[in-house]
Amino acid sequence: MTAGRTRSRGRARGAARALANGLATLILTFIGLTAVTFTIGRVMPTDPVLAVVGDRASQAAYERVYLEMGLDKLIYEQYFRYLGELANGDLGRSIMTSRPVLEDVLRFFPATLELATIATLLGVFIGVPMGVWAAVNQGRPIDHAVRVFGLIGYSVPVFWLGMVGLLIFYGNLGWVGGPGRLDVFYDGIVESVTGVILIDSAMAGEWEIFRNAFSHLVLPASVLGAFALAYVARMTRSFMLDQLNQEYVLTARVKGAREHTVIWRHAFRNVLVQLITIIGLTYASLLEGSVLTETVFSWPGIGQYITTSLFNADMNAVLGGTIAVGTCFVAINMFSDILYKLVDPRARA
């Protein structure tokens, strides 16, 4: 009885310690992210005051806005002031849109989330079987084909692939929708609840708008997903080759286990933890690296919002968008850690 209580208390202390370490890591990561982003935003060769008052403002107006923005203070004082505002959920006001940055982030981020999620799903559900198939058929034509496809998909510039896709599948064949998330005719008909048009139109029962949104999403998601597919397929092949050469696989085959069982129940289960890491990093990279895709397809996502804000010296918007993407990156990593423990009993121990 006493031993059982001791083990329970030990588990409780271990869980509390793990939770405390996770929170500390999250806080330190967030502080580091904001510090680096804020410092880069302040040392960039742009004048945020001119972005507000314009080139023809008087010196008095310039100095007034300069003081209001707190630019007369030392950079660490500006940073602590920004942290205080951030703690209250205030990311400042965008010069470009004249709206609170938080409102802009909530408006633009779902478009990027929708695009990156579909691209990641394409990469996972096609790339993982391709990688396994290539590993099982090592040295055969299918293996060479997957390796060549992975090399091409990982090397071809996204903007070039996007423009070629628009020219062929939209301009010449008319199989998919063009730039943007919707045709102009359908814009504003469906009320934005989640910010994801496919979900909002389905909830509203507007299936014609759903089809139109899907036709616009197919090409950019496929272009972005080609990178994810190539990377996931290459890494899956590498992981599976390592496991298929282990002694336990040879033992299972000698004992008469079916090949399907050897591949999926034994070898594939041992690469799941590694695959979770790869998929998490791929998803996070698509969220933060979809700027070129959003630019080519005029996709109104957070990447295009940050880029346009940067060109307009709208540093509040750049900082807010970067923090949103960085926070999502950290959240994906934490979720991957949770999945580790669900997949691998050794991680729970």
UniProtKB/TrEMBL annotation:
Report domain ABC transmembrane type-1 positions: 109-340
PANTHER family per UniProt: D,D-DIPEPTIDE TRANSPORT SYSTEM PERMEASE PROTEIN DDPB-RELATED (PTHR43163:SF8), DIPEPTIDE TRANSPORT SYSTEM PERMEASE PROTEIN DPPB-RELATED (PTHR43163)
Name the major location: membrane
Q: What is this protein called?
A: ABC transporter permease
Q: Which residues form a coiled coil?
A: none
Q: Where in the cell is it found?
A: Cell membrane
Q: How does it sit in the membrane?
A: Multi-pass membrane protein
Give the family per the record: Belongs to the binding-protein-dependent transport system permease family.
List, alphabetically, the InterPro entries matched: BPD_transp_1_N, MetI-like, MetI-like_sf
Membrane-crossing residues? 20-40, 115-136, 148-170, 213-233, 267-286, 317-340
Cellular-component GO terms for this entry: plasma membrane
Q: Which GO terms describe its molecular function?
A: dipeptide transmembrane transporter activity
Keywords, A to Z?
Cell membrane, Membrane, Transmembrane, Transmembrane helix, Transport
